[in-house]
Design goal:
With 380 residues, the chain is mainly alpha-helical. The protein contains 15 helices and five strands. A hairpin with a 6-residue loop joins strand 1 and strand 2.
């Protein structure tokens, strides 16, 4: 491998010599020759953009070679992490990959400056994808900048948790009568009749339109109890739910970054809400061929970006401030850790949040599920 690569910056045959390899050796070792060919071409386009447009595309102002080199290095590490997570060469990391990588960094031992530098590099990567291919820009869940303690915190206060729980209780997700297909109406009739305590042949449009779904209620309440990560919301199945014992049982192969099964406490009323959702879910045709616990109205698992939009809508409805604070689904998770620690102890919080790393996780749970459930009742 040569020590530099020549990259063409435009159609006028002007070349720029890049004083670093486009394909890091660590990356090349993981790829076939054809994959190296594809990967190098992608990296070449990215490097070209960094040097010519990266800092300010409108003014055609690029980054210095030193900044471009550091950016390419950090993005290469991110890409290798994605390949490891996916078990294969993944040419185009997604926004969800970036969110999950940031959470991995958040729990790591690196300095805040290192984490911030990685984040800035990945922001540049998705800025390139947006500028060149009109893809969605990345809005990170986390920020590794030095915190401004005069600004609102990015986790929910106890009062905000209570507001969010109340708003989620009345959140509308059942479509109005006219939005159902005839087949969907027929499938849902027994459930609607049971909810309004009427015979199916006596149902009116108002009966359908007056009801709200248990889906968002169960999703929000479960997350307020367990601090579900976005990837765990996406992976959650009906098999996780044990309403009789008021726990989630998360198998190790589905639990984000863990190698052990987890038993996570739920409030008793959350378990009851989940039971209501499971019954409603059983009547909905979109769930006939899947055990996924929650799907969007389009029938897809939730992504971190959809969850961010949902919590911001919920916060708007609840009157919870989101300006000047990083509000995402992780805000719920952070609030669980913060208030569980204060109400119970660190071991309870670590068990409830399913931390694995020795720096953040106890090797055993000193607080039994019943004690953690009591703490959940006190935290709203």
């Amino acid at each position: 491998m040569t020590g530099f690569d020549s990259v063409r910056t435009d159609e006028s045959s002007t070349d720029v010599e890049i004083p670093f390899p486009l394909v890091p050796e660590k990356s090349e070792e993981l790829l076939s020759d054809k994959q190296v060919f594809d990967y190098r071409n992608r990296r070449e386009r990215f490097a070209k953009w960094l040097l010519v447009f990266g800092k300010d595309p409108e003014r055609i102002e690029g980054y210095s070679e030193a900044t471009a080199k550091r950016t390419m290095y950090r993005v290469g590490a991110f890409e290798r992490w994605v390949w490891k997570q996916e078990g294969e060469y993944t040419p185009e990391p997604t926004l969800d990959h970036a969110d999950n990588y940031m959470e991995m960094l958040a729990f790591g031992n690196k300095s805040q400056s290192h984490k911030a530098a990685c984040q800035h590099s990945i922001l540049r990567y998705f800025k390139w994808r947006h500028h060149e291919y009109d893809e969605e820009q990345w809005d990170p869940d986390h920020s590794f900048s030095t915190p401004d303690y005069n600004q609102p915190r990015d986790y929910l206060t106890i009062e905000e948790r209570k507001k969010l729980r109340r708003v989620a209780l009345d959140w509308r997700e059942l479509p109005y009568y006219q939005n159902y297909t005839p087949d969907e109406r027929e499938a849902m009739k027994p459930y609607i009749a049971k909810r309004v305590d009427k015979p199916t042949d006596s149902l009116s449009r108002e009966d359908w339109n007056d009801l709200t779904s248990w889906k968002v209620t169960s999703l929000v309440w479960t997350s307020l109890d367990t601090g579900l990560r976005p990837i765990e919301v996406e992976r959650a199945t009906t098999e996780w739910v044990d309403t009789e014992n008021a726990v989630l049982r998360i198998p190790h192969e589905e639990s984000s970054k863990n190698s052990e099964n987890w038993v996570v406490s739920l409030r008793d009323d959350t378990a009851e809400v989940l039971a209501e959702w499971l019954e409603e879910r059983s009547y909905k045709p979109m769930y006939d061929d899947t055990d996924t616990l929650w799907l969007t109205q389009k029938g897809n698992p939730y992504t971190s970006r959809q969850l961010r939009r949902l919590i911001r809508k919920l916060c708007d409805e609840a009157g919870i401030r989101t300006d000047n604070r990083s509000m995402s689904w992780y805000s719920i998770r952070h609030s669980v850790g913060t208030w569980m620690t204060r109400e119970e102890d660190l071991a309870a919080a670590q068990a409830q949040l399913r931390h694995k790393r020795s720096e953040t996780t106890m090797k055993y749970d000193s607080a039994p599920p019943d004690d953690r459930r009591d703490a959940l009742d006190r935290t709203g």
